[in-house]
Amino acid sequence: MQALATVQKPFAAPTAARSTGRRALAVRAAAAPEQLSRRALAGFLAAVPVLLPASRALALIPDDDDEELVEKARANRAKRLAAERETQQAFSRSAKGLDRVLEQELIPVQRAINNLAQSGAQLEAGDVKAAAGTLSGGWVRDFESAANKLSYTDSSKSSAAAVFSSLSSLQAAAASGSAADAKRGFVATVSALKGWASAANVTADLKGL
């Protein structure tokens, strides 16, 4: 019996070792999902700082439905464009006098000044009919187009509108044959034209104002 017992002991040890190995494998298998989830969480947390600036950048983009923000953006852009055009205009003067583009834009304005001066002389002479003829014609349309092109700022645009309104009233007064109304309209138109030329920064480029 003792010999049998001693023979059975060597077989007990491998069974215990196998059992212990199975338990170790089971523990590692159970820990694997936990380790995997920790790695996934660590990866997600690492990506969060990258995602946050993008979300902030998106928040800075104005919504097209927000009309107030859109209008402000348009107004700011218009101001920048006006400032750039004024800078270009000033540079063209400082280089070699007026550049060709600005010079061409000023021709209809100078023509308008000349026609106004002629109509003023005709009104002074009492020839309202002749003044009415001088105040009509294609030069009026050309002047309005040129003035609009040269009006970059809100101030110059407003001044240009005042000139157009005064000139229209002057034409109507002269066409009606009223010398008194035509003379008042002439004074108002010249005053408005001077105000626009100053606002558009072209007074020094014109003659007769």
From TrEMBL:
The parts of the chain that form a coiled coil are none
Record's InterPro entries? Answer: MPH2 (IPR038862), MPH2_C (IPR049072)
Name of this chain's protein: Thylakoid lumenal kDa chloroplastic
What region holds the Maintenance of Photosystem II under High light 2 C-terminal domain? 108-209
Taxonomy, superkingdom? Eukaryota
Q: Which PANTHER family match?
A: THYLAKOID LUMENAL 16.5 KDA PROTEIN, CHLOROPLASTIC
GO biological process, alphabetically ordered: photosystem II repair
The record lists the organism as Chlorella sorokiniana
- A Pfam family this protein belongs to? MPH2
